[in-house]
Each structure stands twice: as C-alpha cells, then as structure tokens.
Amino acid sequence: NFNQVRSAFDRAGEADAAIKAAIDKPFAAAVAAAERGVKLLDEKIVGASKLDYPAGEYFAGMTSAIDAQFALIDVSMKLLAEALQQRLDRDWRELLIVSLVIALGAAATIWIMIVMTRTTARTVDEALAAARALAQGDLAHRPKSSANDEIGQVVRELGASMTRLAEVIATIRDASQSVSTASAQIAAGNQDLSAR
C-alpha cells in the first residue's frame, strides 16, 4: 500500500532532515514508477479486452518500475548502514569511556588498599615493637603512630602506659632509695647506740 509506505518514509524524514533530503528524490521516483507500473498492468493486462500489448514494452515498463524500487532500497540501505555505523561508533565511544572509568576506579581502589595496608602494617609493627620492648623491660621505648584508626590509638595508649609505668617505677625506685638510706641511717644509729 503506497500510503503506508509514504507514511513510513514521512516519519523517517520528520525524525532526520538529512534522511528526508537523501530519500525524497529516489522515493518520488519509486512511487511514480510504481504508479506507472500499476497503471500499465491495469490498462494493458488486467483491464485489456485483448492482450495485444508488446511483451518487450511491458517488461521494459515493469523493469523500470522495479529498478526504481531497487534504487530506493539502495539509498535506504546506505542510509541505514550509515546510521547504524554512527550508532555503533557512539556506543563504542561510550563503552570505551565506561571501561576507562571502571579501570580508573579499580586502580584508585587498589591504590587505596595498598596505602591502607601499608599504613596499617606500619602501625601494627610499631605496636608489636612496643609490646616486645615492654616484655623485655625496656620502658624507654616510645612507640609513635600518626594513624588515626583504632590500631593507632592502641599504639599511642600503649606508649602512654609505658611512660606512666616508667614514672611509677622511678617513683618506687626513689622511695626504695629513701627507705634504703633511712635503713642505713637507722642501722648506723643502732650501732652508735650499741657502742656507747
């Protein structure tokens, strides 16, 4: 049905002016050739009282109508191929962009994991060194951690505990020396009294 075909081509032309400009002439030629072919068929074959129309002219007329349809099909297929290629190119670009974003995201994630792992490992190593020093009685060891996570807090608290423990031991040592000095003085006083 010519009207349905014409409607379909009109919609395509409304969607894209370039398609309309490229198809208008071949479409008009195809429609005109088809109408001539239908007219030739109606007048010379279907509606003729006697079949006296020369076969060569009939086939030439019908071939011309068919060739015009093929010309329209060729133009349409070329336009379709170009549109599909453009869409394919656009989709490839989008896929490339999405792939790059995913790759960059993955690289950033890996980098963050490496940095966090190294930072955590250093903090754990510092905590372990402080615990070993404490176990060996080395209260002069001062663990340092710039990490703000829980492990960093543990390291800082361990260092503070070691400092307080060293202060307590120093106080006990001072008190012990005072007691020792007092004991020595009392013993000296006792000997002095015994000697009198």
How far apart, in Å, are the first and last alpha carbons?
Answer: 147 Å
**Chain-averaged pLDDT:** 89
Morphology: rod-shaped
Structural class: mainly alpha
Question: What's the β-strand tally?
Answer: 0
**Major pleated sheet:** none
Total of helices: 4
Q: Using only CA atoms, what is the Rg?
A: 50 Å
Order of helices and strands: HHHH
Helix proportion of residues, in percent?
Answer: over 70%
% residues in beta strands: under 5%
Low-confidence stretches: none
Description:
The protein is an all-alpha fold and 196 residues long. 87% of the residues lie in helices and 0% in strands. The protein has 4 helices and no strands. The protein has helices at residues 2-15, 17-46, 55-135, 150-195. Helix 1 runs antiparallel to helix 2, helix 2 runs antiparallel to helix 3 and helix 3 runs parallel beside helix 4. The mean pLDDT is 89.
Provide tags for this entry:
196 residues; 0% strand; mainly alpha; 4 helices
Question: How do you describe this structure in short?
Answer:
With 196 residues, the chain is mainly alpha-helical. 87% of the residues lie in helices and 0% in strands.
